TrEMBL record:
A GO CC term attached to the entry: cytoplasm
Active site: D115, C118, H332
Origin superkingdom: Eukaryota
Species: Camelus dromedarius (Dromedary)
InterPro entries hit by this protein: FAM105, Otulin
Signal peptide limits: 1-18
Annotated protein name in UniProt: Ubiquitin thioesterase otulin
Region (Linear diubiquitin binding): 113-115, 257-261, 329-331
Lineage of producing organism: Eukaryota, Metazoa, Chordata, Craniata, Vertebrata
Family: Belongs to the peptidase C65 family. Otulin subfamily.
Pfam family, one: Peptidase_C101
Main location: cytoplasm
Amino acid sequence: MFITLIVLMLDVFHFGWSLLSEEDMYRDADEIEKEKELLIHERGSSELGEPLVVLQGSFGNAFLTWDRGHIVSTGIKLSTLSEVSNDHFEFFDAFAQGYEEVSQKFTSIRRVRGDNYCALRATLFQAMSQPAELPSWLQDPELTLVRCRCSTLGFRTLKLPEKLISKYSWIKQWKLGLKFEGKSENLVDKIKESLTLLRKKWAGLAELRTEARQIACDELFTNEDDEYCLYEAVKFLMLNRAIELYDDKEKGKEVPFFSVLLFARDTSSDPGQLLRNHLNQVEMFLLAYAVCHTIQVYRLSKYGTEEFLTIYPTDPPRDWPVVTLIAEDDRHYNIPVRVCEETSL
């Protein structure tokens, strides 16, 4: 049996969520609400259905109406997707129910620009925009300054990138992101610059009040030069944490179970292979350990299973801040936003 899905070309998300263009990175709640009111005024609430859901998968963007546990046509036929089998219908149905579940706690979404840095972008933006002090791991002088012995000069101070590269020559295989291709960048200098910028920007944001901090964070993540430097810094912190975990495992120390699995793969049996084959792909457990944040992800396609809400790491320290993401296909991540933060006694 095949079912034809009708596409609505409406710029609306379920419960007021907005689908942005690729050029737009985030849209604030006021814009979303104004746009929703405008569309309702222009088309009439009956046309919009109650509520609307956006499903993004193998078949592009399909805007469908959610009605009592089923996906139904809205009756506005602007374009039609190719025929979809029952299996795919069930997949989309899981998406819709997943969005319905998320809507119980969140009221809108910040849509994140999709590329290879999507998970880093979503996680780092949310972490840096939270009203909190500068994380203790960024205050640690060992992050950028390391005391080591030089055979000719005695003790001298080196930054972390120099320390690691002097010990692990294979780090020189590091490839800077696409934004730095064609530029004659010195690897050590660029990573040092990136780490310094990360600490400087995060420290500056930590001093601001909530509203000003949000504005400053929005501006930071629309400045591509600074933005991609931050990602290089986080990638380096991920590699540094991977090296630490690998060394601990080799010494027989207790390590998180994910790191055992990480280095059990044929393509990442050691940190060198991890650098060459996987560092430019997201490793959510490693990302969580690198920035000391718990990352909880609503995986829409896994609705109805234990994997619907996945926590990275599985058993995080209680004092780690929490960031929440929505995964449409385990490759693209958006940020859910709530009007009123939940509290507990």
